[in-house]
């Protein structure tokens, strides 16, 4: 019973993480609070992967909702025995937790790539990825950020928001991974007890 309550707490934690991911991803479309760059498609290409909105956001909300339903003690029995039903629900919960790892992992990877690539901005040579060939070295050298003339403060904007997305999706991966470990141990321990009971009797 304790593992189920622990799992329910972890599932509930996924909800605010998903909501924040949606908010942060939406902010990436409006560098420095301006709408014109999104409408003219002058944003880094990685924001169009919808990693925070769809995968670490909406899909994770769906996963969290399903996990909370599966962990409800009043769920319908799928087998004749209560032990069988709990094992089946635990297996389903583990599968959806694994899906959560995939969704949040996708957001983590895309956000990291967006961070390393740098923003799409106007330089003296026109609109380009000014730091694409620096392998992320520009992240620790703020003196080169002035190369981006427009949008204003776009480098800081991208670094902060992509870093937050990485942190949020990373937490989601950790939460889902903990859930998988807990559920896997529940299944294995439950199977072991079923095997040894006939010998005891």
Automatic annotation (TrEMBL):
Compartments, as annotated in UniProt: Membrane
Presence of keyword Transmembrane: yes
Main location: membrane
GO cellular-component term (any): membrane
Membrane topology designation: Multi-pass membrane protein
Family: Belongs to the L6 tetraspanin family.
Name of the protein in its database record: Transmembrane 4 L6 family member 18
Organism: Lipotes vexillifer
Species lineage: Eukaryota, Metazoa, Chordata, Craniata, Vertebrata
Gene name of the record: TM4SF18
């Amino acid at each position: 019973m304790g593992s189920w309550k622990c799992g329910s707490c972890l599932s509930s934690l996924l909800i605010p993480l998903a909501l924040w991911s949606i908010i942060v991803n939406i902010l990436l479309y409006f560098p420095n609070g301006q709408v014109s760059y999104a409408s003219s498609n002058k944003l880094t290409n990685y924001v169009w992967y919808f990693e925070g909105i769809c995968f670490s956001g909406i899909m994770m909300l769906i996963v969290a909702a399903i996990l909370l339903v599966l962990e409800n003690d009043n769920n319908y029995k799928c087998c004749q025995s209560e032990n069988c039903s709990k094992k089946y629900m635990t297996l389903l919960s583990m599968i959806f937790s694994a899906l959560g790892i995939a969704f949040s992992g996708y957001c983590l990877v895309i956000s990291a790539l967006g961070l390393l690539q740098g923003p799409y901005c106007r330089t003296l040579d026109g609109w380009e990825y000014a730091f694409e060939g620096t392998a992320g070295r520009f992240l620790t050298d703020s003196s080169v950020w002035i190369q981006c003339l427009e949008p204003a403060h776009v480098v800081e904007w991208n670094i902060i928001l992509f870093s937050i997305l990485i942190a949020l999706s990373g937490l989601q991966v950790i939460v889902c991974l903990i859930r998988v470990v807990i559920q896997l141990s529940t299944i294995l321990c439950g199977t072991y007890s079923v095997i040894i009971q006939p010998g005891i009797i």
